[in-house]
């Protein structure tokens, strides 16, 4: 990942302004430790902090077209840059950077080229000929981008909020799949895949197509990485984040297979490296080890202590830019692990985010009443990813100059997966279909197994923290309960969450919490843990606009409120404050869900209650 | 390089304090050990044993905790001596806690390497702090109003919390039991007595080769900084020669990587390329523009923590290059600092009136290194998590080099002895040449100039645009201490003051009377210089220097000398510093 910052039309263009821009851009340096660049054109500034993955020698940014009239600063990877370059055969390229195509595509196609890009990106492009500019963000929001407005009429863009929060009067998340054009002066959506309309698709499920598309989605980033590492002086491998759950295990299995095939070709003898983080003896560590042994990767385990996690919290919040409790819980281990990974010389990792959203991997999908509802819910989930798992995966790795690539969120893969008749995705215990069955089945290859069956069909923790939605309704609390046994923050070790809560308990008094609604009228924290995170967040990002970038408001509640209707018992309790009642329903639900879930939930009911209260409380 | 920070005996031991202490962090990992009201924090750059050597480190029963920034080259020997001790990690610094157990406070001189460390003995709540012989690593000490003692690798780790702070003197030990500093480093040369060992080229050569090879101890990829001058070329040549036999070569390949920075077409780039071609290294050139450099100045000052003009000029290209080097996956580089001080490589040594004066001047120079070249080499690289190792400042090598009868070091043009002749001669091997003769005997330019002539001009022009004559006029009121006398200096100073506004901070930068005194001796070497000791007599000094300069036939244009070859001459440095 790189870090970008662009400012257009600021009144003051003195040296002081230049210094200020440099200073602000420096706040993004963790994202791009390798080099920085600044292009200044009258009252427009484009700054860039680079993490060199492709063409380390010459690809410094900003990038230009032939006559330097078009300037572009990009954070991202364009996987199909070679194909695009072929189309642009009349153009002359200055660097080997994959992002250089953007300037040339703009020359050729004007503003309508964004959908031609396959990859993850956010970029700002300045056309010096008419001093117009555009900014765009990838389809799902894998890369972060913020837009802001200064009192002097300037428009700002930055990869992270911290670069513009002090200088803008107002700012917000730049919507994924959108483009801002100064000519039109508005933000419009460029990403228009069939699934976006939430119409119910009817393509029959074809395991082979799904598998092949996913393999391709994994190869793209790998191939790009291999091209790179050949150029690096040392034999720097990339790796896979492996929690031992289905999604990350599949990514690792496919990547390992691909490496094996391409090994001879690129005479790069290394094994695939996999990484896992956890408190000593945690479930993730064990599960990941098992998968790593099976695939034969070079596996690295990182242990952290609760105290180390607590010590890192301030930095985590500064980097992730959220006060969402569950995101912070899940980000911390990832943040710590990223540092260790980077210290081994690894610059890029593949990660398994997005699968739960696409395939309805969350427990509450068990209750989806029909395929239409199921499909709509997955669509909504994908649309909100940029606020939760994408944000976490991107920022907790970028904090240490590590890049996370997420093959499940490949544009083509999403199209294929979201065009499958959702009937197939429905969870049907009667047909032996557990959640994400279409994915599991696609990789169930008896001849050349990707994973042993028991792992392939294991209902296990996911790396992703789908719990971002937690506080909004009953199901989700329940769902968390179920998943808490298994999801990331817990997979790293059961005492992690307990440790966090104990710590917050010590820092936040009852009186503080009592007055919380006066101090924080928006997204009021209702637990000490939430309060504690919030105070740290407010210290770094005191502006109103900053707290509005974090979800938790009614709009998100609305979007999943749909799912609340799936069960009459839940529907009766849409009120988030109906905490106690929710708890009761939670246990009621326990009796109805499948045996596997039962086992997980069979913890003492007091604990369940406590868990639910807490989830509700984060509302 | 790692970063250490220790707070000992603070009244507040809350979480807030913990976080405050952790604020200053390094790239690979960080560790914090808290014992009562004492905190030992560590930010690690993992060079040896990346997997298990996280700090703080402990003795067997964890009663002694130590946080270290540095490398102990003789750790394997020391481990052998500590047979009845059990080591938890493979870290080279692990020996420190055990040596303390065995020898109490008097073990520091047994360490061969570069280091600064804080050791906490929890049994009696005492602590010691030590800094390596010459100050290759950086270290600061400060005192809080609450009675706490703060130790930090960089100024920025403690300046906000201490009432007073200063550079931790190199070669010293601070012990809480005795409550004061004590010098542990007592080599023969320190007393500045004139040595009489006859010059033996082979002894010198072997000593330096040893110094280089022991620095090849690493578990990560590394390279050499190669400016094409004598010192860096020798380092590169020796490294290339011995690399094949090392453990590092087995892991990372026997190809040596060398790095050079400069404006496009600069003299350094050309010279370095020539040497690299001769040695067959994989050579990397980094080009920067004057604008790149100017944009980095604030960052450089923040990292290097000085407002010394010549240090900033020389640090900037090194700072930019370090980032590029690190981005290639290299974590450690070997560099040529220290040779000019040890051998009297500066041009003004031509005028040394006697061997006694010559020798004393080299001693003074070495003692001041931690404020100039060591500071630059260490902090400009550490800013990007790159470690610089300086074989010329090897303890044993300094002993050997400083025990040579200084008569041999004297510059005698009539005998064909140019500056650093003893070093050149030591590596003049006809059968297995280290370097081609013309490089071995070449008089080269120094860092800030070698990167390209327009660099200094660009800096001055930039400063002139931002500092008005009126500002200069009032400079002595605004900055009564070390008043900047040029617009460039004024410009740097304002940036420095913004980051480090405390009075203590400006006192850590040399320029005061003490440094001026130490080199004032050398000013006496020429009557013409002596007449211009007045700090305002800068222009006059310039004239004399340029006169001298033409005499020694350097190619610099006389009018430029005073500003464009600052560190090399040192005399203009004196003028600035008075």
Automatic annotation (TrEMBL), chain A:
- Enzyme's top EC category: ligase
Going by the entry's taxonomy, the superkingdom of the source organism is recorded as Eukaryota
Natural source organism: Hibiscus syriacus
Output one GO MF annotation. ATP binding
> SUPFAM superfamilies per the record?
Adenine nucleotide alpha hydrolases-like (SSF52402), N-terminal nucleophile aminohydrolases (Ntn hydrolases) (SSF56235)
State the GO CC annotations: cytosol
Q: In which pathway does it act?
A: Amino-acid biosynthesis; L-asparagine biosynthesis
One biological process term in Gene Ontology: asparagine biosynthetic process
Protein name, per record:
Asparagine synthetase [glutamine-hydrolyzing]
Q: Where is this site: Important for beta-aspartyl-AMP intermediate formation?
A: 353
Keywords, alphabetical: Amino-acid biosynthesis, Asparagine biosynthesis, ATP-binding, Glutamine amidotransferase, Ligase, Nucleotide-binding
> CDD domains this protein is in?
Asn_synthase_B_C (cd01991), AsnB (cd00712)
Listed EC numbers: 6.3.5.4
From TrEMBL, chain B:
Mention one GO molecular function. Answer: ATP binding
Stored InterPro entries? Asn_synth_AEB, Asn_synthase, Asn_Synthetase, AsnB_N, GATase_2_dom, Ntn_hydrolases_N, Rossmann-like_a/b/a_fold
Reactions listed under catalytic activity: L-aspartate + L-glutamine + ATP + H2O = L-asparagine + L-glutamate + AMP + diphosphate + H(+)
Q: What is its EC number?
A: 6.3.5.4
Q: Would the keyword Amino-acid biosynthesis be found if you checked this record's keyword annotation?
A: yes
- Signal peptide (from-to): none
Amino-acid positions noted as binding ATP in the UniProt annotation, renumbered to this chain: 225, 261, 335-336
Kindly list the positions annotated as binding L-glutamine: 92
Instruction: Supply the Pfam families for this chain.
Output: Asn_synthase, GATase_7
Site (Important for beta-aspartyl-AMP intermediate formation) residue list: 337
Pathway listed for it? Amino-acid biosynthesis; L-asparagine biosynthesis; L-asparagine from L-aspartate (L-Gln route): step 1/1
Q: Which residues form the Glutamine amidotransferase type-2 domain?
A: 2-179
Q: From the UniProt record, give one GO term of the biological process aspect.
A: asparagine biosynthetic process
Class of enzymatic activity (EC top level): ligase
Question: Ligase: is it a keyword of this entry?
Answer: yes
Q: Which UniProt keywords apply?
A: Amino-acid biosynthesis, Asparagine biosynthesis, ATP-binding, Glutamine amidotransferase, Ligase, Nucleotide-binding
Q: Which sites are catalytic?
A: 2
Q: Name one GO cellular component term.
A: cytosol
Q: Write the protein's name.
A: Asparagine synthetase [glutamine-hydrolyzing]
Species of origin reads: Hibiscus syriacus (Rose of Sharon)
